[in-house]
Design goal:
The complex is a heterotrimer of chains A (about 350), B (about 475) and C (about 375). By secondary structure, chain A is mainly beta. Chain B is mostly helical and about 475 residues long. Among the domains of chain B are: about 140 residues, no CATH class; about 80 residues, no CATH class. Chain B is built from 24 helices and six strands. Chain B has a two-stranded antiparallel ribbon with strand order 1-2. A two-stranded antiparallel ribbon of chain B has the order 3-4. A two-stranded antiparallel sheet of chain B has the order 5-6. In chain B, β3 and β4 form a beta hairpin. With about 375 residues, chain C is of the alpha/beta class. The chains are: A mainly beta (about 350), B mainly alpha (about 475), C alpha/beta (about 375). At the B-C interface, α7, α19, α20, α23 and α24 of B face α3, α5 and α6 of C.
Chain lengths: ~350, ~475, ~375
């Protein structure tokens, strides 16, 4: 797979919304299987903890039941942060309370886990972002050690980089991580309001973002992901949006949320006369918007899935871009121009 | 610095805050008392709780989100009096979750208390009257011209400012009419995608703009004018003074008894009323008068701790949860089990305080909670106590052992029975030794047990 | 009055609160009604799965144990229990059930008041016992001592001290610290008395697990364990007259299909085991149980579960009970739905409380429930 030389960005329209309150409660991450089941990693604390993985059918939004539950036993989670599917089709979940990585099947059966609390090589202090490389080694963001570690899939230490600070290659409570198809690594450096790009070995390449709420600026970026075109997506949680940067780190556009009612949400509303009236009386503009998204994921079809943490749902967008060859587009000029012909 | 300075600093921090670690108390006790009070009254000198951290780890907005975050704030704030005043206003303007079940507006009300709780009475009552959670709680959204709903007008006078007996039924009616049209815009309902904030809305077409006579003054009054008149009343000054006294100084009878039973310390109330009237209801002025007064300094252990005070005080003693950790819900559940469900008071009259905090179940919860928390010798605050005891000598007599523990936990003053009981425990295994490693281990266990016994005492139930 | 077949023993009342709003329509199911099936395409129970009672109503298949007790004649169903202008707020609705105050916000619980009637001097701190944490408002009245037991095996003070001898030593110190002292004032006196009351209650309660032996094996779930605790306390003969516990999780907005059957199965099994246990100890003749919930659920489902509604049902269970259906099942005729979407209540819950207080406990209910309400006659030698 090679990257297109350039893109004609035709659009990135909103596609649909999945899930509702009581089904997808405070989703922090999302994974979608090939058979189009949407797994939402849910995390909040009631009087007891309330972490779980909700399962919803992509097609009709049917509730397929929860797997995992709150706790520290096998297959349970306490403070889950991110979730991946591995090549075997199992779910991989990071847990920053238990300082471990847990593997379970999509039916919730326990497969394995590893992780020890500490700051030594291979030890973890609040692991958050996780991402596989092409060999299924796992990069883990080791938040409170302010570093990234690369480990084998069964948890053996390979390498690490990063110290506390705000210089290149330094971190302040980093959160999300992504690996592109070339093996480069992107880390959202949460408290430094930036995303840093590294080689597979942790050599600094560039950074994007600065503190603020303007275009291309970030307020506590959480999850980050990269698609096959090299586009970089950042869950800009503090600004309630997702930002898109191109492969060079140039800001392209933002997604602030365009939700419509999910199928389950619609069925709920139609069965409830009072909320129907109240919704009818309300200004519903805010309900479209994202609230504190903590992750963003893309699939091979160009779909972008945003777990909408504060709104009990997943918003989905569809990328529409035409790949361009070098012959179809002029070379990058030195400076912008006003003249078209 | 003597134990007296420490005791006074500890007293101030229990009342104007949520307790403090021993290290913090020593720093505070070394400074002039008035400076410490001055800092408490100027929260803007200190940074806010790190909201990004709170949001990252405790960001959920289910019903349990805001109270859990609040407990974290109480323990970690560097602006303790700002947080304590929020609890005070929550107590006086008691608004409960159970009626609306609307988390977003209750959260907004709490943030309003945090923002204006130390300003002046006019600002506070105006914000309160525009607060959607309050408007719904007392039905002011139903209060429209021609069909007034008197609930808010009545409670504003009776429970939030002047107290029963200082106004007439006509005044209630006029106040209610002045607040007609003060409502909120319909927020998007909870299902299917969560709560949305409610926003204050003034509807001129629902407002009764006629001439009204209220407390002897006549005009085309609206709600703001009514508040202007209310905050000038000596009755308001006296009512708020008594609330402050009950919350910060010493237990008073329950509010409904106030029209009949005089204050336990009329001179103290007179001083607070004077400060209120001289400053046009400026809370910092009144609080300053209170905290620097002799009646305050002399009131150590004269109030039963509220559940929130007990739990946060213990957390400050054991020094955990200095950064977000899992399980904050345990502390919220503990406060609830002791009889004070935050953001869900039983009625508009708030919680009954003083000895009414205590019944058999509540006392069991209080004692068991504190005993369990301090029983974990790995907690930083308990390790610090063990270290400090060991640093006070290589061998301590039972009397010294008990006294130093009482000092480190409070300093706590105890009665004869408690002292005798603790002494009997201290004597049961002879002097406390730190000569060998085995000594140290055994002594650490005895210190932890002594601390457990101290926090289970009657005296520890008092602030 | 009050002699309804409890063989001269003091009558005891066990309350089981189903928290969250039990779906009564899916507990006792109008399985032959087209309206029922049309309204509930997702959560409706197919007619052939229902355990029929008659040609209109049938039990949920997971409530088989309850059905068996009903067939034995020891379950009275108060159909359509509720009150006017039913609140859909869990908290408010539960408060109303606890305080009998549907208009004002009440603070005194009906069972707290009943406890005061039974034991005006507060002599026995175990007259009313709650199994669970904190005190339900139903039991709360200032000055009325009520004991709340989170864990019967480990009840009391200083429970965090694992070693028995050390805990005893700590409790001795506690007892000395809370010894009545002269001249320390009324608040200290009160605290001391409360502290010693808790110790006394704990000492008494300790006897219950020690004395208990049974062949009945309760299920491994919360309500079964709570009712086992209640059985142990009742069997210990500590003078407990009101035993209270809660079973949570009934707020089935979503996932009702897997959730509700499990709840019903746990609940019916626990109740059945509880009475089997009492019978095995010849101690069932003075025990009646009330099972209630704060509201029923909406007639129509929402494609995953059901939302807060009205018109619930309560069960009165026990050997002295004359089983059967009482009051009326709410009408399913859409023209008679409350609010256009709810079951209309057919009997006021305060009448059912009155029934239990007056006909079973021998207590005048007027003050306790705040007036006179129509009662039912669910006791064998009904008055």
């Amino acid at each position: 797979m090679t990257r297109p030389y350039a893109l004609l960005r035709a659009g990135f329209p909103y596609l649909k919304t999945v899930g509702m309150r009581r089904v997808v409660d405070f989703p922090v991450d999302v994974a979608v299987t090939r058979d189009m089941r949407v797994f939402a990693l849910c995390r909040f604390e009631g009087l007891a903890g309330s972490a779980k993985i909700a399962r919803v059918a992509w097609e009709d939004d049917a509730n397929l039941g929860d797997i995992s539950s709150t706790g520290s036993g096998e297959g349970q989670v306490t403070w889950p942060v991110q979730m991946l599917l591995d090549r075997g089709g199992n779910l991989v979940v990071s847990d920053e309370a238990l300082h471990r990585i847990t593997f379970i099947t999509t039916e919730g059966e326990f497969v394995g886990m590893w992780g020890a609390h500490g700051s030594g090589d291979g030890e973890l202090d609040r692991p958050s972002g996780i991402a596989f490389d092409a060999d299924e080694n796992l990069y883990v963001v080791d938040t409170m050690n302010h570093r990234v570690q690369k480990l084998t899939k069964d948890g053996r230490f390979i390498l690490k980089w990063g110290t506390f600070g705000d210089g290149p290659g330094q971190f302040d409570m980093p959160w999300g991580i992504a690996v592109d198809e070339l093996g480069d690594v992107y880390v959202s450096d949460w408290r430094n309001d930036r995303v840093q790009k590294f080689t597979a070995e942790g050599e600094f390449i560039f950074e994007l973002g600065s503190s603020g709420s303007g275009d291309g600026q970030l307020d506590r970026p959480a999850g980050v992901t990269v698609d096959g075109d090299g586009d970089i997506y950042v869950a800009d949680s503090g600004n309630d949006r997702v930002l898109l940067f191109n492969a060079d780190g140039r800001y392209v556009e933002k997604f602030i949320g365009d939700a419509t009612l999910s199928i389950s949400g619609r069925a709920y509303m139609l069965a409830n006369a009072k909320p129907l009236r109240l919704r009818d009386m309300a200004d519903i503009e805010p309900q479209k918007r994202l609230r504190s998204p903590r992750s963003v994921r893309v699939d091979g079809e160009g779909r972008m899935f945003i777990p909408d943490y504060g709104s009990f749902r997943v918003q989905v967008y569809q990328k529409d871009a035409v790949p361009l060859s070098e012959e179809e587009i002029i070379a990058m000029p030195r400076s912008p121009t006003l003249q078209v012909t | 610095m003597g134990d007296r300075d420490l005791a006074l600093a500890a007293h101030l921090m229990r009342r104007a805050g949520f307790g403090a670690s021993r290290g913090e108390l020593e720093t505070l006790a070394a400074r002039p008392y008035e400076d410490v009070v001055g800092d408490l009254l100027r929260p803007e000198r200190f940074p806010e709780v790190e909201e990004d951290l709170v949001d990252r780890y405790y960001g959920w907005d289910s019903f349990h989100g805001p109270p859990a975050r609040w407990i974290y704030r109480m323990v970690n704030t560097r602006r303790p009096l700002q947080e304590k005043m929020s609890l005070f206003w929550h107590h006086v303007f008691a608004t409960a979750f159970f009626k609306s079940e609307h988390v977003a507006s209750l959260n907004r009300q709490l943030q309003m208390f945090q923002r204006v709780g130390m300003s002046d009475m006019r600002t506070i009552l105006l914000e309160l009257s525009r607060d959607p959670a309050m408007i719904y709680w007392l039905d002011n959204n139903e209060n429209v011209s021609g069909e007034p709903n008197e609930n808010y007008g009545r409670e504003l006078l009776e429970l939030f400012s002047m107290g029963a007996g200082n106004y007439t039924e006509d005044d209630v009616k006029m106040a209610a009419r002045a607040f007609t049209g003060w409502t909120f815009a319909q927020p998007i309902p909870l299902y299917p995608h969560g709560h949305y904030d409610a926003r204050f809305e003034y509807r001129p077409e629902e407002h009764d703009d006629s001439v009204k006579t209220f407390l002897g003054e006549t005009g085309r009054f609206d709600g703001g004018d009514i508040i202007d008149i209310i905050v000038r009343q000596p009755a308001t000054a006296a009512f708020i003074a008594r609330h402050l006294y009950n919350f910060f100084v010493a237990d008073e009878p329950q509010v409904p008894a106030w029209p009949i039973e005089p204050p336990r310390d009329p001179e103290a109330i007179r001083i607070l009323v004077g400060a209120y009237l001289d400053s046009d209801g400026d809370m910092r002025t009144v609080l300053n008068a209170m905290f620097t007064s002799d009646f305050f300094k002399e009131a150590q252990f004269r109030r039963v701790k509220s559940p929130a005070e007990l739990v946060t005080g213990v957390l400050n003693l054991v020094e955990t949860h200095r950064t977000p950790e899992p399980g904050i819900g345990v502390y919220q559940a503990a406060v609830t089990a002791m009889g004070q469900e935050l953001l869900n008071p039983p009625t508009v009259e708030g919680w009954h305080t003083g000895k009414e905090w205590i019944d058999g179940g509540a006392l069991s919860e209080r004692v068991n909670f504190a005993v369990n928390e301090v029983g974990d010798g790995s907690k930083p605050g308990i390790q610090a106590i063990v270290r400090r005891v060991s640093e006070s000598g290589s061998e301590l007599s039972p009397e010294e052992f008990m006294s130093v523990c009482l000092s480190l936990v409070g300093p706590l003053t105890v009665g004869d029975e408690t002292r005798a009981a603790l002494m009997a425990y201290a004597e049961s295994q002879g002097p406390l030794r730190f000569h060998t490693e085995a000594d140290e281990e055994a002594s650490a266990r005895r210190i932890v047990r002594m601390v457990q016994l101290i926090v289970s005492s009657m005296e520890y139930q008092f602030a | 009055m009050a002699q309804n077949g409890h063989n001269g023993k003091d009558p005891a009342l066990v309350i089981v609160q189903l928290s969250g709003g039990n779906d009564f329509m899916n507990t006792l199911i109008p399985y032959t009604s087209a309206v029922y099936h049309d309204s509930r395409p997702v959560v409706g129970i197919p007619a052939d799965k229902v355990l029929p009672m008659d040609d209109q109503l049938g039990w949920h298949p997971s409530a088989a144990a309850l059905k068996e007790m009903f067939d034995d004649g020891s379950v009275a169903v108060a159909q359509g229990i509720g009150y006017p202008n039913s609140s859909r707020s869990h908290f408010r609705a539960m408060d109303i059930w606890h305080t009998c105050e549907p208009v004002e916000v009440g603070t005194e619980g009906w069972l707290g008041r009943a406890t005061r009637e039974i034991d005006p001097g507060g002599e026995n701190v175990l007259t009313a016992v709650n199994f669970g944490r904190g005190l339900p408002r139903a039991l709360a009245v200032p000055g009325v001592p009520v004991t709340s037991v989170g864990d019967l095996e480990n009840y009391g003070l200083m429970t965090g001290i694992g070693d028995d001898d050390q805990r005893r030593e700590a409790l001795d110190v506690f007892k000395q610290m809370y010894a009545p002292a002269v001249g320390t004032g009324p608040v200290m006196d009160y605290l001391a008395r409360t502290g010693l009351d808790v110790l006394k209650g704990a000492d008494e309660l300790k006897k219950a697990p020690a004395m208990y032996e049974s062949d009945v094996e309760y299920g491994d779930n919360a309500i079964a364990q709570s009712l086992r605790d209640a059985a142990r306390v009742h069997l210990a003969g500590l003078g407990s007259r009101i035993l209270y516990t809660s079973h949570g999780g009934y707020d089935t907005h979503a996932n009702e299909v897997p959730t509700h059957p499990q709840l019903l199965s746990d609940l019916s099994g626990a109740i059945s085991d509880f009475f089997a246990d009492l019978r095995a100890h010849d101690a069932a003749d003075n025990v009646v149980m009330l099972v209630f919930t704060e509201f029923g659920r909406r007639i129509k489902d929402n494609a995953s579960g059901t939302d807060h509604g009205t018109g619930g049902g309560a069960f009165i269970i026990g050997d002295p009970v004359r089983g059967g259906l009482y009051s009326e099942y709410p009408s399913l005729d859409p023209s008679r739905w409350a609010n256009g979407e709810d079951l209309e209540h057919t009997i006021d819950f305060r009448g059912v409380y009155g029934t239990l207080l007056e006909q079973w406990m021998g207590i005048d209910p007027t003050e306790i429930v705040g007036g006179h309400f129509e009662q039912i006659l669910p006791f064998a030698n009904g008055s």
